[in-house]
Design brief:
Number of strands: 4
Structural class: mainly alpha
Order of helices and strands: HHHHHHEEHHHHHEEHHHHHH
Number of helices: 17
Mean pLDDT: 76
Largest sheet: 2 strands, antiparallel
Strand order of the largest sheet: 1-2
């Protein structure tokens, strides 16, 4: 079973997916005239901005998210804003079956596959540092996340998710007057998450030389700290901090940081899965029953994830992420003209000294139900 899981993961994350993600990033950079550089100051300003006229969403900072398209096609459901790939695939591409497929994959990936990755990281880190049985750690984390998701969860997010679609799900919950505002915030999050945090971590590991290097045949070329380069674990960072503060303190610091990082990510995964359940089943008794089943499933997988080897758990998680990315990247490429028009609309209003407000008719967007209602309320 382990080999089957790893093989499927390799199929999903073929070189083709890597190439299409890189090319899509280049395409959007050129198409927006490198908006991530031109509008850096605007991104920082918008980070904590919120539309005070309504109280159905969260600030852009609370969403940490990408997606202009998610904002364009979002909906309001029982007082909460919902959006994401399923919504813009159905409404923008007029492709209901693909939207449903993404929603099903997202529920499975975010509700079952990915939570086990985070709990596995917590369990391994605490087991290594404090010598606690991973099963006990899994139980504690499962109970805590159960209490949180049963109580009304807001939003949590972790490192840059541009392209895979999950960031776009929570982006739809942000309350802004123009979809491009949320797109700019996502661009800023890439600076913070990937260029700052991830790069700083990598530089620290390289500077402290807490890694091993192997040749193509598996023979060791450089040995350091007894951890294998490329394994999806936390020992590199722990060892790097340990060279400065001592291995015991390095483990303690990383374990605590890993707990908070992974726990907030678990909250995000629950919200992603719940949003797609709402898309699939709408309002009513069936939705409420399935949400409870989702909660039980997620809590169960949090416990299960603490019991297995990291390589197997990460292969399962990678499969879910990759499957979503295939659908979402293709969808946003097909819908890119609408995103580009929205950006031009935003920049035109900024140039005229106005606070940008989105009008879907201006860029030829139909079925933007939320924005039609929003604009009618503003005018009235």
């Amino acid at each position: 079973m382990e080999q089957v899981i790893k093989t499927i993961s390799e199929w999903v994350w073929s070189p083709a997916l890597v190439v299409i993600c890189l090319m899509a990033g280049l395409y959007f950079s050129i198409g927006t005239r490198f908006v991530q550089v031109r509008r850096l100051r605007e991104m920082a300003r918008l980070l904590f901005a919120n539309d005070k006229s309504r109280n159905t969403g969260v600030t852009s900072f609370q969403a940490f998210s990408e997606s202009t398209l998610s904002q364009i096609y979002k909906e309001e459901n029982e007082g909460e804003l919902r959006g994401g790939p399923s919504y813009y695939i159905e409404k923008g591409l007029k492709c209901k079956w693909l939207a449903v497929l993404f929603a099903v994959i997202a529920v499975m990936a975010c509700g079952w596959f990915l939570p086990s990755v985070q709990s596995n990281s917590i369990a391994e880190s605490f087991a290594e540092t404090f010598h606690i049985n991973p099963a006990w750690i899994g139980i504690v984390v499962a109970v805590l996340i159960g209490l949180v998701i049963v109580g009304g969860v807001k939003r949590g997010i972790y490192s840059n998710e541009a392209g895979q679609g999950t960031g776009a799900i929570v982006a739809g919950a942000a309350e802004v007057s123009h979809p491009v505002k949320q797109g700019l915030v996502q661009a800023f999050s890439v600076y913070v998450d990937t260029l700052l945090v991830c790069t700083a971590t990598a530089v620290m590991i390289l500077a402290c030389k807490t890694y091993n290097v192997f040749d193509a045949s598996g023979n060791i070329l450089i040995a350091a700290q007894g951890v294998q380069l490329g394994e999806p674990e936390v020992e590199y960072t722990t060892a790097a901090i340990g060279t400065l503060l001592g291995m015991e303190w390095g483990g303690i610091i990383i374990s605590i940081a890993m707990f908070f990082f992974a726990f907030t990510t678990l909250m995000a995964y629950y919200y992603y899965a719940e949003t797609n359940l709402v898309y699939l089943f709408g309002k009513g008794k069936m939705e409420r029953v399935l949400i409870w089943l989702l909660r039980v499933g997620l809590v169960t997988m949090v416990f299960v994830g603490s019991l297995y080897e990291a390589s197997v758990i990460w292969a399962i998680g990678d499969t879910g992420v990759g499957a979503m990315a295939w659908i979402n990247v293709i969808a946003i490429l097909l819908l890119s003209p609408k995103a580009f028009k929205a950006l031009k609309s935003y920049e035109r209003q900024k140039k005229d000294g106005k606070e940008p407000v989105f009008n879907p008719e201006e860029i030829g967007v139909k079925e933007a139900v939320y924005w039609d209602k929003y604009n009618s309320e503003i005018l009235s």
